[in-house]
Amino acid sequence: QVIVHDVNELTEKLFPIVEAMQKHFSAGSGTYYSDSIFFLSVAMHRIMPTELTQIIQVDLDLKYKANIRDLFDEFNNFPEGAVIGIAREMQPVYRHTFWQYRRENPQTKVGEPPPDGLPGFNSGVLLLNLEAMRQSKLYNQLLEPSTVQRLAEKYRFKGHLGDQDFFTMVGMEHPELFHVLDCTWNRQLCTWWRDHGYSDVFEQYFHCEGEVKIYHGNCNTPIPED
Fold this sequence. Notes:
34% of the residues lie in helices and 13% in strands. β6, α10 (202-206) and β7 (214-216) form a beta-alpha-beta unit. The chain has helices spanning 7-25, 44-47, 68-72, 93-97, 99-104, 130-135, 137-142, 145-154, 163-173, 202-206; strands spanning 55-58, 62-64, 84-88, 121-128, 178-181, 187-188, 214-216. GO terms for molecular function: xylosyl alpha-1,3-xylosyltransferase activity.
């Protein structure tokens, strides 16, 4: 069954919820990510019918090597309290974005590579447990403008990647809200940061073992042919 949602209607509902966070996680007025629709996942539980309890949201630049039904099974692996399933970011983009916080807190795991660090998240593949998002008092508190402002100030954070930045910042503070998907469910291919000052640490973020289930050709990277 296919249901088509009008983008303008969704944006109209979204805007009051996400307006405050757009100044922290958008590239600026009139730019690609400044549109409210790029924060859809953040407030999906507020605007979708209550009978919808789980949604998988994916980018268009993906190639599937496994049955998407298997990805739905990941909802069963959510630990108690988790509301969103998401894979780690596979470039040192947040090592860069959190530079000021990292300089002021030299022992932090923020922006450090896996398995022990907190490299941030990539929103190309998202599992949204809408029912859990609705029920989570903590998650809904984090949508409040004052909370977003406080966290952005604490982490000296100014991003430009929409929902991905919000989830990343929240994940630094409350990792228990997230079920971390294996990298094979969102095998990102972009290598931009390797050529822009981070070649020495790039592979620590980019490395991914296992049979790839979903390729993600982010930053217009070609996806391997079969």
